[in-house]
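Build the 3D complex.
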Amino acid sequence: MRAEKANNHTTAAHRCMRVLSTLALLSLAACGEPPWNNPNPPAQDDRLTYQSMMSPAPPKHLDPALSYATDESLFIMQIYEPPMSYHFLKRPYELIPGALESAPQVTYLDARGQPVEEDDAAVAFTRYTLRLRDDLRYQPHPAFARDEQGGPLYLFENAAQGAEFRQIPDFPVTGDRAVTANDYAYAIKRLADPVNASPMLGFMSQYIVGMKEFSERVAALPRGDWLDLDEYAMEGLEVVDDLTLTITIKGRYPQFVYWLAMPFFSPVAPEVDRFYHNPGFADRNLTLDWWPVGSGPFMMVKNDPNSEIVLERNPNYHEDFFPVEGAPGDLEAGNLDDAGKPVPFIDRAVFRLEKSGLSLWTKFMQGYYDRSGEVHSNTTGVFDQAFVVRPDGVEMSPELAEHNITMSPDVKPGLYYYGFNMRDPVVGGYTEEKRKLRQALQIAFLTEEYLNVFYKGNGIAAHNLIPPGIPGNLEGEAGINPYVYDWVDGEPRRKSIEYARQLLAEAGYPNGRDARTGEPLKIFIDVQSQAISNTSMNWIDRVFSDIGVQVEFRPADFNRTREKLLTGNTQIYSHGWLADYPDPENFLFLLHGPESPLECACDGANNSNYANEEYDALFREMRVLPPGPERDELVARMVELYRRDAVWLYAFYPKEIYLNNSWVHNNKRHGISKATLKYTRVDADERERMQTLWNQPVTWPLYAAVVLLLSLLLPGIVAYRRRQNATARHTGG
Amino acid sequence: MKPLLLWSDLLIFLLVVVLTVFFLRLARDPQTREHWREVFSTRLGMVTMTLILVYVGIALLDSLHFRRALEPVAGSPEGEVFYSNKVTSVLDVMLGGMGERFERTYSAPFALDSFEKQDMKDDNGLTYRDFPPLEHAGRHLDHPGERWDDVLAKSAAALLWGALFSVLAIALQWAFLRRSPFPWHASWITQAAVICSAVWLVSMSRHYHVLGTDLGGADVAYQSIKGIRTGVLLGTLATLIMLPIAVSLGVMAGYFKGWVDDVVQYLYTTLSSIPGILLIAASVLLFQVYIDLHPDFFSIGLEKADARFLALCFILGVTSWSSLCRLIRAETLKISQLGYVQAAHAFGVSHHRILVRHILPNVTHIILITFVLDFSALVLAEAVLSYIGVGIDPNMASWGNMINGARSELSREPVVWWTLSGAFFFMFVLVLAANLFSDLVRDAFDPRSGAGRSAT
Amino acid sequence: MFAYIVRRLVYAIPILIGVNLLTFILFFVVNSPDDMAVSQLGQKYVTPEAVQAWKRKNGYDLPLFLNSQEQGAGALTETIFFTKSVKLFAFDFGRSESGRDITTDVSTRMWPSLAVALPTFVVGIWVNICVALMVVMFHATRLDRWAVFVFVALMSISYLFYIIGGQYLVAKTWKLVPISGFNGEIQPWKFLLLPVLVGVIAGIGAGARWYRTLFLEESNQDYVRTARAKGASEIRILFRHILPNALIPILTGVVVVIPSLFMGGLLIESFFGIPGLGSYMLDAINSQDFAIVRAMVFIGSILYIVGLILTDISYTWADPRLRLD
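Done.
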């Protein structure tokens, strides 16, 4: 009896085992063919999709009048076509006509509006005449859909009428039309409309004639759902014909043409604006801020900022070709392989929200993202072991090399710096002593080492406030900051710590102690708390303790830090600047006296409150000069003042290295323009092959888990049986 | 040298005094003594208590802060001494400068070379690229190959010393406690293990980085040890801060009933219905603003970090008081229905007297159980809050900050595992000991868990 | 019963008012409307006019509590407190500071949260009960003591380590599932496996230990002794006697969290990139988006109160002797 029971039990266990192992096999089969870890949905059609990410956050604004961030231009610049654009390959950056047929024609006018010569002292206005291409056409969009009478099809009386449309693709009927010069004028009027709260309003009002008055006039108007800005004229704007527009600005401002390449000057069709002001649309996020409408190579078909944004090829995009010339070296680098071919190459681009660096990187290495990043390379903090920048190039880890990953370095025309507040009683001021103090601190801050440790060498210590690639930044010995560096053996070498100590002593702080009171010198650094880590604070603390200076950090959130800058209530602050356009003026103005927040009572960029009359005079002169040796001379003198006065503690040019999987082509980074997606080419077959190759799952842990569970269960069963028997015997006895 | 008393230092020593008095008073009560006897009659109770005391001891040593005087300079007025803005604690001194040996960046445990290659110049002035040797690890070795022999030899020596100290310490206790009915040998074994590893760690870290170094080149073992103070203080102070509110409101609600009860119930339901994390985030941001607007209150960075830390303790206390308040209210309700309380009422004994004599002593076990139970939960919560960005000030060493900073290190190839492991180990031991100990305390004190106790 | 629920709901109103007032005060001290405008407008060229325009557009140009320029009821309604806070009671959450409609976001993000939280909850309870039952079978043995020790050890590990470890091993090293992401339409289970697994494992320690205590309490009851004395097998006792009776405390203990499942998990969603309400909240905290936080606090409070009411109801359902009055 007993034996039989045991036998039963073993067969039961057998059966159990068999069921379990079948289950395990079934579950494996259910997973389908490897790779199992593909986070991208399987291809639904044969359209060529580029797999990308938005990281770490989705864009906030996609309205061209509002957007002023690179992660937003990533989308805006694929959808809209501003008048000007940049050449994809040429360096230094070259401005080329975008939506325009040719570069704008410039006319100088005197105060009475009569044309005068460029160098005439009487120049009071500059007029830009913009002539559009004749083949620009908007993407298909419901705003252009017409009813039988030719009026807009989707125009609703109340919120209930359009309630079934939750997204733009929900509208069954679409239409399109040619882009006209009036659309560009309308967009500029939108900048002026205070309701839109465009960041450009204050700045552009200084230049465009009549913008300020227009803004005030429109602000005073009563508003219903929508205000047709077309009914109001702006003095400086004239729509000559369907394809011609003139913009008149006050005085001279040669840099204005750069602004024409920015998203702010993208066309906006009045009917689109009207469409988005349908009652109830805003409550469903049906706004221009979320569903841009343009004539560019791509159009938005899905905008779910919680998970993904999808762009698809705009069927109405005009003829466009890959550039046939490039910068020296582009031919050798294969950047011209597609020269003359029609663009865009891809049909669809998917941007998935990816917040965490670890998963982004893992997916890139598994081949599920085509590139490591779009607006951030995401390589600095995450995978710094992947490569280390050396003076003679970049070294990749074997794993990356094995994946045939290519690299695209990107030196952004920008700066990150710690600036001194020149009004501070301790570190500020223009006496020789204060200069020496600042120079000593500059020497003590080992920028190169800092960049190596915390940025993996992805940055270049700045000798100049103008970044490389922009006129005014010189190479070699001529380009070094002689107050901090010596030129030794063909490379800049930071002056010694002994020299810094000596400067410090001459400044009245021998060994970092005030010569009069003996009090130790303590400097305060204001930083944004998210922007600095404990380890880098410790590091900075250590370098300054080398010359006996004590450091205190005052981390605060963004608003608090900004408030301190605006009120001048800071000693050393951290800041960054990314250029709007590749002109030295866009950097030199960072130290222009009237730009000081304390001077202009505004959000000025001269947070150091640097005030030097010589510099300001040079700046005014330089600003209106055309590029040339004369201007270079002025720029050089200003840079010298910046170096002599040691206005910033340290600065570096951010440099990032973007990684591209082997199947992505035309990866050259453009430091300013983001309108480069149309040039991207993807080899989908190669991608699929590699993904399968790299993602063979490791299955033994599954079996191990099953075995482990069983091994936990079995002794349990055995012990249970023993116990049952024991109990039985016990009660029996 | 100038002693520096941070607010949290003050509070933690105050807490120690309060707890001592509390326990001494409790010990007069024979029933409580019986409960404690039950806790300590198990070996587990002894071991965990020893471990917890070690952590608390380290935290207390790390709470004795001072600022070193700077060298006087010629020309400064006589008698005026200036102090460094670095705050040192007694623990730092005992660790023998473990936290002052910085490397350039990452290095693995017991490594001799940095974890990252660097350009260097050889004797002929040619640039080459290799892993640079560390500045503070294995400099005494003639040859890198001797490393493991050296580690073994030094470990043996350190362990010998550790054993010697342990024998001394245990012998002293043995002299007094050998007749004690409690299983002291379990504690002694733990003590010996702790002493040996401490001696080993301190002596090894003179020659190597036992747990490697982090991104900024700081010693990971040192940081992990510095995290102890934060963890222990947060776990105790948060409860300490909430205790007066929770106990007084709970007792009042349960005793007076009526509108008092309604108001208290309203208060704690309202507070507990707000998602805790949002409340904490809002309050921490609020306090951060206050600190930013009043920078003059704090002369050195650590005081600022300390203020934020206390604010965090306070907020955690406020958000977690409702459960204790609820428990105490229920218990008070029950007790006040009992015959002797009703009788006291009938005899006209004052409310105050009834509360102090009859109610409070009977809810102390709930306070005690909550105190030990919350401790580990709070230590764990700190890590999560630091991850969200509303935790400890980044200036302050804490396990949460370590984990947060090291999160991306796992994606490196080869993996940097030691920072996470360091934080994990020190945190795990503390929380495990606290959890096991709290189980014992609950089993001993909570009448409800009597069933579970007798079954085990 | 119905009257009781209505009464409880009425009682909830002052609580919600209190919640609202508290968060309102907290967040307006932290962040003045000007601060919000600046952080939303971005970094370059923020003029006072732009700040004013933003405040007007988003309705922050009103006084906080009392509008002295308005007559009659307008003095109270034309204030930030009324427009931003009181309207929540009509479930009008308004716009986030970045201009998106919060109700839409909440209603879409709720489902991914639920997709993770519900399986974690159900599987978690099931696994915990199974484990606890197994352990209870061996109570008072060495196996039981070790199991309890393992539970406590599992409890003592920070949740962060479970997530980091799970991602590192299962997704990165073994490549069994995607490391993060979510897709509601195609193969959602693929993305849910790991978060649910991590959630369940991280919960075993505390959960199984709690259930073990509950079961042990039951197993010491007289009826169990009687059953044992009658010679019922240990399995039968467990499943027929202990489990059904322990269900009452289990049920009442877990019901309160069911509504809150909609809120999702802060950590698990942010690590695994799940577009649910948990990560919504975390983003809102990080970007100091007051409107979202206010809405989430309100929703969270409502769900909590609903949970309390459900708990009361489940008491009567599980134990017919209780009546709600």
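Chain B has 15 helices and five strands.
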